[in-house]
């Protein structure tokens, strides 16, 4: 009996081949951020305000711009089918699996986290480092206004 094994897809090679086929002069350069502003928490998690960042859209026609929306009540649904994610390996039927607002609110109610931020942020999946960096600054400013200590990124 032949033993089946998994093989990997080299996303780096596939991306470089794709961009070369599109006529780009230079190969795709992956973003690296050795100076990313990740810092240790300065207080216990039970005292932290937590926010969520998702790559899901509110509607299929949302503009490709970052947005905020109220965390509570959590939205009944989000638009995901028009986005790129592995639709054969997973599903987005369970909103809590990719936008865990109700879970985080329950953690806040139990005292595990201090509080849920009053709004969450959405940022579309775009393969532009320049735009993503600019948008990240907008989200940082929104969360600073909300007194957020910790952000959880839940990409599709």
Write structural notes for this entry:
By secondary structure, the protein is of the alpha/beta class. It has one domain (39-154). The chain is built from four helices and five strands; from the N terminus they run αββααββαβ. Strands 1, 2, 3, 4 and 5 form a five-stranded mixed beta sheet that branches. The longest helix is centred in the C-terminal third of the chain and has 17 residues, at 129-145. The mean pLDDT is 84.
Terminal residue distance: 37 Å
Helix content: 25-40%
Total of helices: 4
Tally of strands: 5
User: How many separate structural domains?
Assistant: 1
Helix-and-strand structural type = alpha/beta
Q: Main beta sheet, described?
A: 5 strands, mixed
Secondary-structure element pattern, one letter each: HEEHHEEHE
Mean pLDDT: 84
Instruction: Tell the overall outline.
Output: globular
Strand content: 5-15%
Unreliable parts: none
Radius of gyration: 18 Å
How would the blueprint of this fold be written?
Layout (H helix, E strand, L loop, with lengths): L10 H11 L27 E6 L12 E4 L24 H4 L2 H10 L4 E2 L2 E4 L6 H17 L4 E5 L2
Features:
single chain; 156 residues
Quick gist of this model?
By secondary structure, this protein is an alpha/beta fold. The chain has 4 helices and 5 strands, in the order H-E-E-H-H-E-E-H-E. Strands 1, 2, 3, 4 and 5 form a 5-stranded mixed β-sheet that branches.
